Amino acid sequence: MNRQAWIALALLLAMVAVEGAIPPQPVTAPTTENAALRTVMAMAGQFRVVFANLLWIKVDKYHHEHIRKDPDWTKDTDILPMLRLITWLDPHFVQAYQVAAFMLSDSLGRYEHARQLLEEGIRHNPNSYELYEEMGMAILRARKDYRAAYPYLTRALSLAQDEFDRQRLQRFCETVRRKMGEENRPAQAK
Question: Any long-range contacts for 153-162 (C-beta under 8 Å, 24+ apart)?
Fold first, then answer.
């Protein structure tokens, strides 16, 4: 990163630290001072989301530069720290959780880190079918445990709104259910 990016990152981290250090103000009748403070705090919160989106644009740029050199995008693990920063700045940035968890579990074989990240993402985004699906997929990639993955995949199915995603997840859940049945059969029946 260039010097300006490092300075911006340092300022942002300082702002986040200060924002967390300011104790909540008791609710009082609105005054000019309280209104100004609330406005500044609201702007700082919105700035975090804006900065997360700006970082996502930077991640996308770095990612496409990497692909030009090496078509295997899963090896582009240098973007992981920026993806993590995005999730800290905006805990509702589902795609950052999703991409980071995939890279951790698939490219780096760090399933436990991916699981923790996805659990955090699900806590902040309980209606995200993408994060439930990614958790199920991470379990399958790392442990090939159909029983452990199935509840996450069925939850993803129940949350999916788009018909294409619902049909895709329905077929995948059926496949996982069939694999669970195959595991239950005696060895000679297989």
Answer: 155/129, 156/129, 156/130, 156/132, 157/129, 158/129, 159/127, 159/128, 159/129, 159/132, 160/129, 161/129
Residue type present at position 103 = M
Q: What's the DSSP call for residue 56?
A: H
Type of residue at 79: I
Please work out, in degrees rounded to the nearest 5, the angle formed at the alpha carbon of residue 120 by the alpha carbons of 60 and 89.
Answer: 50
Two tokens, residue 64 = 């496409």
Q: Take residue 179 and report the two structure tokens written for it.
A: 């694999």
Of 140, 154, 152, 153, nearest to 111 by C-alpha is: 140
In the chain, where the domains are located:
91-189
pLDDT per position as a tens digit, 119-129: 999 999 999 99
Is the pTM above the cut of 0.70? yes
| Domain boundaries 91-189, CATH class | mainly alpha
